[in-house]
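Hey, resending since the last one bounced:
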Amino acid sequence: MFLVGLALIYPARWLMHPWAAPLGPALVGYWQGEVAYGPDDSRTIVLRLTEGVGGGDEGSEIGGTATVCAAEQDATYALSGDALDYRGTRLFLNAQPTRDATGLHLGRLDGAWDGHDGLTISTTLLRTAPDGSVTSADAPTVRFQLHRAGKADFTARCDV
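The structure tokens again:
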């Protein structure tokens, strides 16, 4: 009886989150692209998006990690957020650096997924000072494109 219940309940979550279903294109998975931190400063970014633990009051619908490759020091982020529509074509992700570091960092990521292999992200870069204070960088909103990648791309991250 337990197995029957599990077999019915587990796939039912994909009715609520079709963007995470294992059949067909899904928002969850691996993504890779380039983000411009300045005129001569383009950095590789890799993301792994996962279905979160809930939604609404229960927690984030979308979780994951991201790494931005930089010459001085790679930046790793914990991601959490929500789909803003049923299909997951609009979403937001909070990018929380996993360690304290000065310099430029990603802010909130606002995304538009094409439903297949393209993801467009908009963010404002944040500047962390040596004293730990965070301010908006003197830069306009940054937009960048991500394309579907594989686990090997994510694992290799900045080894290029």
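The chain has two helices and eleven strands.

Sorry for the duplicate.
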